[in-house]
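Hey team,

Filing this mostly as a record. A colleague (T.K.) asked me to run one chain through the structure pipeline before their review meeting, and I want the input and output archived in the tracker in case anyone asks later how it was produced. No errors, nothing strange. Just documentation.

Input sequence:
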Amino acid sequence: MRKLRLGIIGCGEITRFMSVFAKLNNNIQVVGFYARNIEKAHRYASYFRDASAYDDYVKMASNLQMDAVYIALPHHLHYPVMQEYVSRGIHVLCEKPAARHFTEANETLNLARERKVKIGVNYQYRYDKACYRMAKAAQNGDLGKLHYGICNIPWSRSNEYFRKSQWHAQWEKSGGGTLITHGSHGLDLLLWSFGKKPVHAAGFSSQQKFLHTEVEDLCMGILELENGSLLQVTSSMVAMPEQPAMVKIYGSKGTAICTFRELFSSVNFIKTSVPNYTPEVRGVHAMGRSLEAFRQWVVKDKPYYCSLEDVLDVLASIEAIYESSRSQAKIEVKKGNFENYGRKIL
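Output structure:
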């Protein structure tokens, strides 16, 4: 069986982890790295046999034979790089968010459909065993009718976070602060679990600690779904001390409480019995399972849990919460061109 030829665009912190999982996967051949700093690209490439290094992602696309690319760049670069590779017929796995704005992501989705290209967004917690079990229980009715859900991301950041990656502090490059960067993980899990479209949003955001930035370090939002269920999200860079993120789902038969961390997660069910649902894809970590599932999607056409179409409403919801915070009004959530919305996990 031919290996998936994968290019990696961006050599930041997250690529360090994804590179390890790519190297551990015998069915993936990493063929090249792009970084603005060519020395960094060479350093990453040196760990892979016959991998090349580039400081020009267009030249990399022209010179290398690739089936797919993994994109881990500042948010404002997701759109132009995806446009470049999708237009060439190369499949894409992009770090979240898919783009800074809903319109950028929706436009890229339309281009992908034209070119018959697959775009995945790495919301890897969908492949976390505890998070998956929670979502499956919610979708299968084990919790009964779903009334409301809450996610809380009580994380903490220091000035070093903005010093190392100055784009995080700039609205034009980041598209937002803690909500789009951190809270979108929990929001994605809630929307996936409930499987209903968001229709209205209300939100508040503030700068509690990092007053020198253009983005919020604390955000709270509420989403109203098409069936009347409500979702609440709180995302923070200022919690002290930092605590694990948590998602809670309240249903008519019982409650699910999922605590998710970088290395391992856990889920508890109250007043209901839930089978031990597990992702079909094997692997030692959610990120590795997400990468392998993307490979199987490209090579075998097996469904990937977080295609761009599947997660577009996350970005639309975030944008609506931000707009509500600015206008102090309830905002209607934008609608994309969905074909398979609300599709259950297998």
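Quick notes for T.K.: The domain at 4-124 is CATH 3.40.50.720 (Rossmann fold). The chain is about 35% helix and 25% strand.
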